[in-house]
Design a protein that fits this description.
nine-stranded antiparallel beta sheet; alpha+beta; binds zinc ion; 341 residues; HIT family, subunit A
Length: 341
């Protein structure tokens, strides 16, 4: 009996949470149908886009005529740097405290039509350089203890604007998801992710693509159908420790992975991606291993997504397609973008 073919739970050692895997529900052969999406005409500049160069943003500010990346403080910032401190805990049940932070937007390119998959590696390396500079700058602010870089890509993920950009929310507290990982990684006496990567490379079945510095793979405990994690081979804790050759290598692996994603259903593949990095609270985080998560919602086609409802909202996450078969499908795909084929 192969345990992989029967219902089972898998543990995510980063969060301590379990995912239910039901492979017997997908033993029917893959249908493989792809709904061809109409190819939208490339709009390089949109006069109504608040992120395009020279355009007016909310509140009357104008973007400069930028030609590379462009960073600004979010006009509708979820957090403010000057919120006065308070803390309350009425009856031990109504706990609240002030939270300070800084929220920024990073435009990846002046070209409204691009995505990471459609940018060249040099331009993505400039985005990596911008992330490094931003991490350094925000980490140096005394009231900032965590820096969350994330990209919401596609309307399905609630991205309000297709212009290629990400956000950086930096916070006084370490947010929930990062805090869970920090706790579990710190509890070990070695780096759990260094050992995990070594074991995954030995097994090979969940690897999607790799270069000399980075590996993209579907984690054993993945929740989303085509979820991946991007791990540097070398141990480092945050972007301020990235080596010169790792910048271009990170750009390259991001381009290759997102191209595979676009090719999967021949669509501009939606996702939330982001980096988990050591908190900038000055504590000892030597066993934190920087990585990026990609959480894409699509399940079967450009329009059929996975929903986290029912048992998943009340019990816990569940998946049918196994991480191994998701990795095999991503691995089979070309790294030439379907729009260029
Ligand atoms: Zn734009
Ligand atoms: Zn490590
Ligand atoms: Zn993580």
């Amino acid at each position: 009996m192969n345990w992989r073919e029967q219902p089972h739970r898998r543990l995510n050692p980063l969060t301590g949470e379990w995912v239910l895997v039901s492979p017997h529900r997908t033993q029917r052969p893959w249908q493989g149908q792809v709904e061809r999406q109409p190819r939208p005409a490339a709009v390089h500049y949109d006069p109504k886009c608040y992120l395009c160069p020279g355009n007016e943003r909310a509140g009357g500010k104008h973007n400069p005529p930028y030609t590379s990346t462009f960073v600004f403080d979010n006009d509708f910032s979820a957090l403010l740097p000057d919120t006065p401190p308070f803390e309350t805990n009425e009856a031990g049940l109504f706990a609240a405290r002030a939270e300070r932070g800084l929220c920024r937007v990073v435009c990846f390119s002046p070209d409204h039509s691009l995505t990471v998959a459609r940018m060249d590696t040099g331009a993505i390396t400039t985005v990596v350089d911008t992330w490094v500079d931003q991490f350094r700058d925000l980490a140096a602010q005394p009231f900032i203890n965590a820096v969350q870089i994330f990209e919401n890509r596609g309307e399905m993920m609630g991205a309000s604007n297709p212009h290629p950009h990400c956000q950086i929310w930096s916070t006084e507290s370490v947010p929930n998801e990062l805090a869970k990982e920090v706790a579990n990684l710190s509890a070990a006496s070695e780096c759990l992710l260094c050992r995990y990567l070594e074991e995954e490379l030995k097994r090979g079945e969940r690897i999607v693509c790799e270069n000399r510095q980075f590996v993209a793979l579907v984690p054993f405990w993945a929740v989303w159908p085509f979820e991946t994690i991007v791990l540097p081979r070398r141990h480092f804790t945050a972007l301020d420790e990235i080596a010169a050759d790792e910048r271009a290598a990170l750009a390259e692996i991001l381009k290759r992975l997102t191209t595979r994603y676009d090719n999967l259903f021949e669509t501009s593949f939606p996702y939330t991606m982001g980096f988990h990095q050591r908190p900038t609270d000055g504590a000892d985080h030597r066993y934190f291993h920087m990585h990026a998560h990609f959480y894409p919602p699509l399940l079967r086609s450009a329009t059929v997504r996975k929903f986290m409802v029912g048992f998943e909202m009340l019990g816990g996450p569940q998946r049918d397609i196994t991480p191994e078969s998701a990795a095999a499908r991503l691995r089979q795909l070309s790294e030439q973008h379907y729009l260029d084929a």
